[in-house]
Every structure is written in C-alpha cells, then in structure tokens.
Amino acid sequence: MYDETERVRRIESAEEFVQEFDLYRFLHPPRGGKKPIKKSARTGCANRPAPEELRRIYLAEGKTAKETAEKYGVSVPTVRRWLKIYGIRKEKK
Questions:
Q1: Which in 13, 39, 54, 66 has the greatest CB count within 10 A?
Q2: What is the DSSP letter of 90?
C-alpha cells in the first residue's frame, strides 16, 4: 500500500495536525454552549464539611448560611447548595 517513508511522513503529518488542532481549541474555545467543567465543580469544594458537621453548625448551633460561608471561605449560594444536597432544612415556625 504505502512504503515505509510515506507511512512515516503521513504519521508525522497527522501528529502535527493534532498538535495544531489542540492548540487552536485551547486558544479559541467554543462559543456558546456549555463551558468546560472545572475540576472543583466536578469534585466539589476541597473543604466541604461532612453532612453531620454541617447539620450541627446549621441546626444545633443556629448559624446562618452567611456565617457558615465565612467559616469555610465559600459563597452563601455554595452553602445553600450544600444544604440542599444534604437535605438539611430548618423547621418553619
């Protein structure tokens, strides 16, 4: 089919194309659509408290989401998302 030199040339050409394509995609991310997921979004916050600890802080100690967010160095919506994930809710008065 192809002699060895032609085969090697085609492989090298393909490798160059892949490298250029990867570089282009890195420099020009796709517009619209979903953005790539960050590692922290996939694995969660590194300092996310355990459900028991969050339940103790939020329910037993009566801390607010804002106070909890300040303690862990995250935003208030992040704490609220944790509470929702763990199913922790304050009783309505």
A1: 54
A2: P
SS3 category, 85: helix
**Best CA proximity match to 55, nearest among 27, 91, 13, 12:** 91
Nearest by Cα to 56 from 92, 86, 93: 86
> Is the full-model pTM beyond 0.85?
no
Cβ partners under 8 Å of residue 17, min gap 6: none
Burial 63-83 (b: 16+ CB within 10 A, else e): bebeebbeebebeeebbeebb
Question: Considering only 15-19, 44-48, 80-84, which range has the smallest mean pLDDT?
Answer: 44-48
pLDDT digits 0-9 by tens, 25-43:
767 666 766 555 554 444 4
